[in-house]
Amino acid sequence: MAVTLEDYKGLTPAWCPGCGNFGILAGLKKALVELNIDPHNLLLVSGIGQAGKLPHYTKGNVFNSLHGRPIPVAVAAKIANKDLTVIAISGDGDGYGEGGNHFVHAARRNHDITYLVHNNQIYGLTKGQTSPTSDLGLSRKPLRRVRPRRSIRSTLAIAAGATFVARSFAGDADHLSANYQYKALTIMVLPCRLSSNRAFLLNHKNTFQWYKERVYKMEGSAGLLAIR
Fold first, then answer.
1. Is residue 70 classed as helix, strand or coil in its secondary structure?
2. Whole-prediction pTM value?
């Protein structure tokens, strides 16, 4: 029996209005339907943060792990049940900060899982501290901090040995959906629209408009968006 979007209807998202996570969620559901994967054959493993809430807004088996630890759980589940479709979900802090060691070794070992990283270049859940992917010099006036170091790039995964690394934009659901269908690392760039109290932009630089003016599909590449 064919899988439909209705099969993946979950709880109502509690993300801020305009959050790029909505596009990521829509793209994931579209890919799961196109691949005809039944929810009971799916495991979503997430860490902590706004990205970590995604599994609750769809259907399937879910494991909410510790901060930065979704990859070890996802790998263990795939080893235990090779027929299970396993997707690990992180934010940029969860994936590259607390979980940076697991990220590198998972790429090196090339496990048969999909790793989705929501990269909004900021710590959204904790009111806007800079993350491992924040741009050099990004000013965070509410916290009186400026990003003093260079950011982690997707080339780290390639250097570590990942066989397929993709980058998509939360505003392009079709591109997201196509990349989700690979067993690999997919990095989704998205703006962090508002703080939890709706008071200010958490990342005033990397907005939807900023991405729309700069992202483009790389010629000859199956799944990579570049940013000018």
1. helix
2. 0.81
Block residue for tokens 């305009």 = 18
> For each of the chain's 228 residues, which pLDDT tens digit applies?
799 999 999 999 988 887 888 989 998 999 999 999 999 999 999 998 888 999 999 999 999 999 889 999 999 999 999 999 999 999 888 888 888 889 889 888 888 899 998 887 777 776 677 777 776 766 655 555 554 555 666 678 888 888 788 878 777 777 777 766 665 666 666 666 554 444 445 666 666 676 667 766 666 555 555 555
Residue 152: C-alpha distances to residues 65, 149, 191 (Å): 23, 10, 17
- Total residue count of the chain as it appears in this document: 228
- Tell which residue, 178, 141, 209, has the closest CA to residue 27: 178
DSSP state of 124: T
Place of tokens 């703006």: 191
Closest C-alpha among 81, 32, 79 to residue 54: 32
Question: Which residues are CB-contacts of 209 (< 8 A; sequence separation ≥ 6)?
Answer: none
Q: How far apart are CA 171 and CA 19, in angstroms?
A: 10
Which residues on adjacent β-strands are paired with residue 64?
Answer: 46
